[in-house]
Structures are given as C-alpha cells and as structure tokens.
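[INFO] parsing input record for Charged multivesicular body protein 3
[DEBUG] input buffer:
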Amino acid sequence: RTITSKAQLNSVQMQVNEAFAVRKIEGSIRSSVGIMKDLNRLIRLPEMAQTMQQLSTELMKAGIIEEMVEDMLPEDGEMLMEDEGEVDKVLGEILKDRKEPSLPVAPVPEPQTQEVEEEEEEDAEAMMDQMRNRLDALRS
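[DEBUG] output buffer:
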C-alpha cells in the first residue's frame, strides 16, 4: 500500500513538473509571438513587396532604354580603334624627330592570391559584423 501511494505521489509530482514546464514554454511562445508581431509591423511586408515591384519595373524600363541607346549608337569597339589610329597618325606627324626610344614594358606583377583571399575574408567578416549589429538593433 505504501509503495502504491509512493508511486502515485511520484506520478503527481511528474505531472506537476510537466505542467510547470508547459507553462514556461507557453510564456516563451507568447514573448516570441510579441516579437514576431513587432518585427512584422516594422518590416511592413506589403509595402516592401510593392517597392520591389516598382524597382523591378524601373529596372526593366532602364534596361529597355539602355538597349535602345545601344542600338542607336554605333559599335564602340570599331570607333575606338579608328580613333586610336587617327591619334597615332597625328602624334607621329607632330613628334617626327622628337620620338624618345620606347622603354620595354615591365610585366605587371599579379596580386598575390593570398592577399586577395584575406581581403575577401575581411570583407565577409565586416559584412557579418554589420548584419549582427543590425540584428541587435532590431532586437532592442
């Protein structure tokens, strides 16, 4: 008889502990819901969606206008080569006798990939720090 009553008391104790845990989870969920509501109010998803649609239409318009301008203007590559040829001719006539001996062109050293990777890593870290700061600002 004492063993059964002891088992019942343990069962009741576990149920009470479970009820307290459920109550604690309920409080956490309520605070999370409040935070989510505040976040949704701050973000204003419908307004952001409308802004994104306007931006996409403007970009499409800009792309179409850019294509029209490219179609109207002649090819830049051919024009640049012709222009450079004319400039070389004029400079050749002006500097007939005063031409300096051309110096050999030194090869440009390629940037070290390690430095580039370090810079990219630093940029990524800086970006992550900015995002963390923004997240902290939103939380507070």
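[INFO] The CA atoms of residues 3 and 30 lie 40 Å apart.
[INFO] shutting down worker
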